[in-house]
Amino acid sequence: MTIEETVGAMAELIDEGKILHIGLSEAAPETIRRAHAIHPITAVQTEYSLWTRDPEPEVLPTCRELGIGFVPRSAAGSSPGASSRPMSSMTTTSAAPASLHRREPRGQPQARREGRRDRGREGNHPRPAGARVGARPGQ
Fold first, then answer.
1. Which residue in 21, 29, 36, 96 could disulfide with 62, CB within 3.0 to 4.6 Å?
2. Within 13 Å and on the Cβ side, how many CA atoms surround 111?
3. What is the DSSP letter of 22?
């Protein structure tokens, strides 16, 4: 399916009032232009951080030219060199220095076990909050 067909179908959803805006993720400049020609694109989300500046030469200027918002995305806990090691070589111990959340008390194994246990207790379940507004647990 082409980007034109996809955005066309999403534009129909806007016309039907089922969605409000269309956004793209990890799109190349030419894809952004083709999509925007079918229906205005609201935002483009792409990986962008101190270590990944790839969108700067082409994606950011395209978004600026077309008046499209840019949403930077960065994987949680990513750091220089973290992706250079194969996942099979990372154990809990070896991955810990590259992952900030493992240094926090709530990231420790005991806290994670307690959190899993606590989520089953009454009052810690999302249902009561959602029920007040008529939402189902998955919403």
1. 29
2. 8
3. -
CA of 93: how far to CAs of 27, 89, 90, 110, in Å?
36, 11, 8, 15
Q: The tokens of 57 are what?
A: 């030469």
- Sign of the CA dihedral with 18 first, then 7, 138, and 72 last: negative
Helical packing angle, 59-66 and 29-38, nearest 10°: 20
Amino acid found at 119: R
Per residue in 25-71, pLDDT (tens digit) is: 999 999 999 999 999 999 999 998 888 888 999 999 999 999 999 99
Distance CA 66, CA 138 (A): 35
pTM for the complete prediction?
Answer: 0.56
